[in-house]
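Q: Got a minute? One more chain.
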Amino acid sequence: MKIMTNMVNKAQGFGLSLITKMASSDVLDQLKLRKFVEKSLYQGSKAGYKTLSKTQKAFKTNKDLHKQRLNNQEKSLFDLSYSEDQQMTIDTMSQFAADILYPLAASADQNENFPTELWQYIEELGLNFYALPEALGGVAAEKNILSNVLIAEHLAKGDFSLAAGMLSTFSVINAITQWGSEQVQALYLNSFAQDSSIRASFAIQEVTPAFNPYQLKTKAISRDGQYFIQGEKTLVLLAESADIFLVSAELNGQAEVFILRRDESIQFKKSPAMGLKATETATLIFNQTPALRLGDEDFNYTAFLDFGNLMWCAMAVGTCEAVKKYCIEYANERTAFGEPISHRQSVAFMIADMAIEIDAMRMLILNAASLAESGQTFHREAYLARLLCAEKAMKIGTDGVQILGGHGFTKEHPVERWYRDLRATAIVHSGLHA
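A: Always. Here it is, folded:
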């Protein structure tokens, strides 16, 4: 396969060299063949590239369920085209974001609550079934990491916070499918399949300056074959409505992830932040809370974090798209000195930079997701995506406020809300899972 790829690459290199030489020749113009030859070469080159890219919830254990693991997708190269199913998913999520999430976002942020009607919409969309394996009535037959980040991006076009809340349970199911031991899957995947009202969240972030997810203060203690969690987590999304939590904790000097149910040993303390207000963020204090270890021998904590970063970055891209679109409309409508402010180079260049940066962010995310989906190492690509998104998301949010001027500082326009939410990209380890 490698030899074949090299041969194709050499052939394409020769073809590009030929195109360059022919393009600079005067003979084509003399014979009036330039348009015909250029079109033929373009179609041939295009064909060549196309050939190459191919709390009172019922938790019932299913004793007949064997460990679920989704197969890697078979693909040779990172393919930029979307499948028919992916395009349909994008269209559905984009429409939902525009029609439902965006109109709800301002009041949800103002009231600092997650709209109750969204729980019903999650069920109607069948969102959680995108993550459940087919053996349990879901639609996931193989790893759909690329589709999952596309869902996150296009929901976030409506609102960052509401998208994060909607994807919380969805992401927990993804994590259990990807990493869960047979015991954990038999209990919890079966429960999610049987009861669509079960809600879940992640508890990763700790009250530590420059928090490092590899250096955890929350501890897991093993006693008589049972694990108990002791410690504190902050900025937990939808904490007070979640029935189960995935919690990162240190066990024998190593970072691990545990799954536990909501019970009386957990203290809840509201912890509103600068952004993510609609997700009702809270601090959880665990006091010898019983838990199950999420994974077994194939668990990879670094990959677990990388999947979360990809989802967080995808939501940042979706929100940045919303900022760009709003700024374009505002700049074309807002007049100063008798003309739209979009005619000014300083404004036009700022919006152009947004478009360039968004495309760069998306490319890194999709590249990492594509590698992960095919079972290849993707840590480097996920890390680069997080670095770029952390920097550029904040810049785009800042530039959006700047373009609107005084209006960007008021709640009359959504840009100030997007600015506050986007700053979380560089700060929060959400634990969402692709």
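A: The chain is about 50% helix and 15% strand.
Q: Perfect, thanks.
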